[in-house]
Amino acid sequence: MFAGHPASPRAVKQWLVAHDAAALSRLPIADVAPAARLRLLMELAVLRPGVEGLVVVSPDRHGGHPQRWWQIAVGFADRGISVLVIAGAASGAVLADIAPRAELGPPDESALPEEDRA
User: Fold this and answer.
1) Is residue 39 very low, low, confident or very high in pLDDT (cuts 50, 70, 90)?
2) Is residue 113 situated within a structural domain?
3) Residue 53: beta bridge partners?
């Protein structure tokens, strides 16, 4: 049982059919195309009651074009789910014109209380 859903072969097949992935039912997850794999794993994650957000770490390591997995992330965000994607610099460069980007840099110590400054 996952997130309160049955995990029998029949239930899994029905879930795959409902998510337009019936053709994948006999494939090992490693053989599923990167975009389809990411979408299905994200769909499984949001099945759990109370999930409000997803953290997707290194989707670029699975292959596929960054714009494709970015579209999937945006689709989940459009459904009201918070999505944080942590990806490599190369993917960031590809997505620079379409994706908001945050990078860690040196801390702004002026925003810290006096006692916490170095």
Assistant:
1) very high
2) no
3) 82
- pTM confidence score: 0.78
In a domain? residue 84? yes
Query: What domain range includes position 75?
Result: 9-100
Residue 52, both tokens: 């409000």
CB within 8 A of 101, min separation 6: which ones?
92, 95
H or E, element range at 112: none
91 in a structural domain: yes
Q: Of 88, 15, 35, 79, which is closest to residue 53 (Cα–Cα)?
A: 79
Nearest residue to 55 via CA among 65, 44, 42, 66: 42
Alpha-carbon distances of 11 from 2, 51, 68, rounded to whole Å:
11, 22, 28
Overall number of domains in the chain: 1
> Cα separation of 96 and 45, whole Å?
27
